[in-house]
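dude i think i finally got it to work??
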Amino acid sequence: MVMLRAVSVGLLGYGEVGRILAEDLRAQSVSVRAYDLKLEDASTAQPLQAHAQAHGVQLCASAAAMAAECDVLISAVTASQTLAAAQSCIARLRAGCFYLDMNSASPGIKQQAAALVDAAGGRYVESAVMTSVPPYRIRVPMLLGGTHAAALLPVLQPLGFDAKVASEQLGVASATKMCRSVMIKGMEALVIESLTAARHYGVEDAVLASLQETFPGIDWQKQASYFFQRVIEHGRRRSEEMFESAHTVNDVGMPAFAAQAIAQRQAWVADLADRGVFGTRATPEFARSSDWRTEADRLLHSLKETSQ
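look at this
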């Protein structure tokens, strides 16, 4: 087995998840390279370059150039870019390189990505990340799937990953993730829709009290604030994930009414965030209120302005 510090890891996608993984891997002196499309645009490259310099991450000119140097590639892009990310690596993929796909894509998309990687001589492994990454960082629980999952596990665990093999059958792990997302992202969308409307009518305290009585195990005030924050900050990524969840449900033959609506609500909030309704992303207070009412009031103010 390759010694821990001799493993070269490539991060395809250097967003929030990619940077967290980079920090935790570099803290162990693991060699880390990274590539992100934002590096090709001067207006978006600087923060990524600054982070990479601070943590000793080598930025690469292309995904293919990175793939040629790595033993393990980790794809952490938005769901809609899952196939494009795999395609971008395969021209120079090392023979036997593990390709860990952490993207929130449907089983069908994961199977297509696997076909690309395996045909190029790589070893594709799907990963289903089962909760939000920031609180857990590299220790975020994940399910692995595919014929190469068991072989990758002893490489990941010494690096600090909390991974376990769900199935040798490709698609089982991602189906678990996608079906869970209908519930989790659905709760986010429902809370934002319900409590924003309740705030408008002045009945939010009564609604929260009723929820607390029905579901006493949840701190609804705290949970609502967290939901608002995560959707405002990451609604675009969440909406793409939910469109993939809708595909997953549709593939069963059941119309994905709820999943589709959840995706649209997440995208709607993302559009508002991009327009600056919740402040600018460069400011520390962006989507950071400890009280969801602050964000709901911003949203309601925006709706009022739009209707005038």
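The mean pLDDT is 94.
im so relieved honestly
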